[in-house]
What we know:
The chain is α+β, with helices and mostly antiparallel strands and 190 residues long. 38% of the residues lie in helices and 38% in strands. The chain has three helices and seven strands. The strands form two sheets. Strands 3, 4, 5 and 7 form a four-stranded antiparallel beta sheet that branches. Strands 1-2-6 form a three-stranded antiparallel beta sheet, with helices on one face.
Amino acid sequence: MLEFIKIINSDYAGVLSLLSSLIMVVVTIIYVGHTKRQANYAKESAELVAKQMKIDKQPCIVPYVTDSCGSAWDTTDYTRMQLGFTIKLRNVGDSPAINVYTLADIELQFSEDSAGNKKLLPASLLPGFTQALSAEEETDINIHFETSEVKALICELRKASEKTGNASEQIPAIIIIPVLNLLFVCFLKT
């Protein structure tokens, strides 16, 4: 047995060393591949956690109308009419909303534009602006519509009345006619 080991040691030592080195290289390559795959999984997992945390920490602005008012001034040549809304903005998210711009349109139900879509009447003022709205904070903005938009609303009421029939023939004293939707768009920076 000792002689066998001497023969292997003297005659095949180089081959055995080469073979064991090649086996170690293959095992190392497999190990590196598994380690790289685990590192990629860990990186993807960390990115998903960071993305989820960013999603969870978002502002969420909820608008609701708190008041409305209308007015008309009759001058000798011109009648000026206004319709205004007070809209409360509430940040129900868990991070502040920065540079909040608000736009409003009225969507008419019985009038269409040239493309066949429901007609939109934009508010007369520049967009509302709030510099910052922290989590759970509220603020009021005012929007209003001027004479041309109010005249379009009166025409819309006329169309709605024609579509529902003659109001004097109906028994109820109050008739609710859905004429418009107030569309509200809010842009903000997180």
